[in-house]
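Notes from hallway chat w/ T.B., transcribed later so I don't forget. T.B. wanted the structure written out for a chain they're using in a teaching module, and asked if we could keep both sequence and structure tokens in one place. Agreed to drop them here.
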Amino acid sequence: MTLQTIFILILIGLLAGIISGFIGVGGGIVIVPALVYFLGLTQHQAQGTSLLLMLPPIGILAVMNYHKAGQLNWWYGGIIAAAFVIGGFFGSKVSLKLHPGIVKLSFGILMVYVAFKMIISGYNSLGNE
């Protein structure tokens, strides 16, 4: 692994962590495309790597900050986490059976849809203040 690769990985991690902590999006929205386009990983490699790296930081430091601020619903989080484990298992099975191009296309469509909805929602909320 080159020093340049390590530097890119650190930048991806910092950017994903900042965005995730700031607006609550999953780091995968930043990490997966960055790993594909800046480091040449396949869609599947990027998704697997993204899931691996998010286990410790999400479970520790970010949660501690939200807990200290009284902004956690432990019951909701626990139920979603249990379902997420099951969904993640089956989702990864389906993803690995599909052509990477189909997975990449699906991911991109989801990102565009979510971005559009958030832009409209944010714009509409500006008039309510």
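Follow-up for T.B.: The chain has one domain: 3-126. Might be a good example for the class.
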